[in-house]
Design a protein that fits this description.
alpha/beta
Length: about 375
């Protein structure tokens, strides 16, 4: 059964009142999220171009390469533990299919309206999940990363938080963390509460305050509101947006809105009452032309900044298959093209951070930007 919103919440959303901040939130005030050293290099699932994603090794490598922020995706085990996987279904990111003792766990579920078949985290206890090992999700494109298949376990969110603290001490700089709550409506329908678990974890880690190097993000909307209003979350929030579709929670509640609608200039001002940043698909910032070459910037960055929102687009990847046509090198989809040049165009467009699979390339692009500015 899909979790339903209350009648009041549905009415608010239908009227476009995307969130009215609580008194506590209003009194705290929204600091300009762009006050930190900018633009930020955000390690998308860690240095996921070089190591299997969402592993402690991928995060460590990313920070060593100069990343400012690490990004874990959060789902939940059967016993209510937040763990770090890209999706609830884990056949593409773990070796679960090679474990005969779990063969009968393979099943089909509907996730955000889409049929999915495989193995699901919420059918495993943390102890069972610990017997699995991470694997490269894109082995054909990233064979060097696939060489590490089986080397690393699936980490818990608390382990990633502890790693963040250790890396901050080790490198003598504050390492940020930007967890994404995956499929909140789906997890609540399974009897789980990722928002409550997240707030407990970040509070224990000393990060539940406005100046913490913490952002929490979601492609859904009502869970971001709930973090502010119900769970007393005090750090920063990011609303994620794709080029198509809209938040599944609003669709399930019967008040569907598209991401396009929610990123209009007027709507961005409403979003800013609750969130501090938007994380759009990079092609919403700079679209591709009909020939797949990189075009010119839209007004999104300008409109978001006018509303007081930072903009952190995703995802920058070095392989040709992910690059605009005029930034590819050769015909091999797995070969690395001119990702640094692509990133530089976004930095010039004024974005406040970039999600990168190869954070070293984004760091190099930022240095080029700074060097040219200094010159």
């Amino acid at each position: 059964m899909i979790r339903r919103l209350t009648g009041v919440a549905v009415t608010m959303l239908a009227l476009g009142a995307l969130a009215v901040p609580s008194a506590a939130t209003a009194s705290a005030g929204h600091q300009d999220p762009r006050h930190a050293a900018q633009p930020l290099v955000i390690a998308h699932r860690g240095a996921s171009g070089y190591r299997p994603e969402h592993t402690l090794a991928a995060y460590e490598l990313a920070v060593r390469m100069g990343a400012d922020v690490i990004e874990p995706d959060l789902v939940m085990t059967k016993d209510g533990v937040l763990v770090d996987r890209h999706e609830p279904e884990i056949s593409g990111t773990t070796d679960v299919a090679s474990h005969p003792e779990f063969a009968d766990r393979r099943t089909s579920r509907t996730v955000d309206g889409e049929a999915v078949t495989g193995w699901f985290v919420e059918d495993f206890t943390l102890g069972e999940l610990r017997t699995l090992r991470a694997v490269e999700r894109l082995p054909d494109l990233r064979p060097d990363s696939a060489a590490y298949d089986g080397a690393y376990p699936v980490p818990t969110f608390e382990e990633v938080l502890r790693l963040r603290a250790r890396l901050s001490r080790q490198y003598h700089r504050s390492i940020g963390i930007i967890p994404e709550i995956k499929h909140s409506t789906y997890l609540h329908a399974a009897g789980l509460d990722p928002e409550r678990a997240l707030v407990r974890a970040v509070t224990r880690a000393g990060l539940n305050h406005r100046d913490a190097p913490l952002w929490t993000q979601s492609f859904e909307w009502t869970n971001l509101v709930a973090l502010r209003e119900r769970h007393h979350y005090r750090a920063r929030l990011v609303f994620l947006a794709s080029r198509t579709g809209g938040p599944y929670d609003l669709e399930a509640a019967g008040v569907p809105r598209t991401y396009e609608e929610m990123l209009s200039a007027r709507s961005l001002r409403r979003l800013a009452r609750t969130v501090d940043a938007i994380g759009p698909d990079k092609r919403l910032v700079i679209p591709w032309e009909a020939d797949d070459s990189l075009g010119g910037p839209t007004r999104l960055v300008t409109d978001a900044h006018a509303a007081g929102l930072a903009v952190t687009p995703w995802t920058f990847r070095a392989e040709n298959t992910f690059l605009p046509a005029d930034h590819r090198v050769g015909a091999d989809p797995a070969a690395h093209g001119r990702m640094a040049d692509e990133v530089l165009e976004y930095l010039r467009a004024g974005v406040d951070g970039v999600f990168c699979d190869q954070p070293d390339v984004c760091v190099a692009a930022r240095e080029r930007l700074r060097g040219r500015a200094a010159g």
